[in-house]
Sequence to fold (275 residues):
Amino acid sequence: MIVKIAEKAGFCFGVKRAVDIALDYTDSHDSLLSYGQLIHNDQVTDRLSKKGLKEVDSLEAVYNQDVLIRSHGVGKKIYDLGIDHELNLIDCTCPFVKKVHKIVDKHYREGYEIIIVGNAKHPEIQGINGWCNNKGIIISSIDDIKPLKEGKYCVVSQTTLQYSVWEKVKIALSNESSEILFFNTICSATSERQEAVKILATEVDCMIVIGGYHSSNTRKLYEICMSLCNETIHVEKKSDLMMTNLKKYGIIGITAGASTPDWIIKEIYDYLLSL
Ligand code: SF4
Fold:
């Protein structure tokens, strides 16, 4: 059996950085709070919770503690609360997300209305909105666009937005206002991972997609693989593969979502080779 791993499989730069910081910190400290779930991967969060990482959904009642801010980032109010509550914020906001915060903060203070293109329920979007006093207009596609009042506008995107959606929104909004600035803040990590898997899925007999069952980027990878290779399997960990007869395949491809650590990919790779 030949086993091939797709390029760009697994952790993106921002998630890897956040997990590495959390692992390092919990090595040398007894406890650490994470504001929200660090990443959508139970194996990683279980490992970190055994090392003393505890998840909290609110910091209102937290004082004088070390608190990790995950890669999705948070709004300005959390930083203000950190000062008021004397928290030691370990800021793992991905630098690409940080850049969006800076754009929004600057333009909001200069009197621009902020438009954010993305999923309103996603923590990254909620964090970005927190840099314009939660007054951003959030749209997920051209269908959400309503006529704009007179004024100046600044448009940013969720880092994982599909480029085709951004292009359509940009054209539609340009017709709505003459004073409108566009900042394409899409990060290439997601699209690069998807492009890499499109090549691999056509070269193999079976594709294994590793990642959390609730991870939207993993599900998207699964859909892409499925459209190119009928024999596609989505698993979270090695034990999920035990009941599957994999010996019948000559070439197996592996990819993994952005929240899947290297050690899980390696475990599955080694298992396949052992067959
Ligand atoms: S997808 Fe891009 S922006 Fe988001 S955490 Fe990863 S590297 Fe950062």
The CA atoms of residues 46 and 207 lie 26 Å apart. The domain at 2-10+189-274 is CATH 3.40.1010.20 (Cobalt-precorrin-4 Transmethylase; domain 1). The mean pLDDT is 94. The longest helix spans residues 13-28.
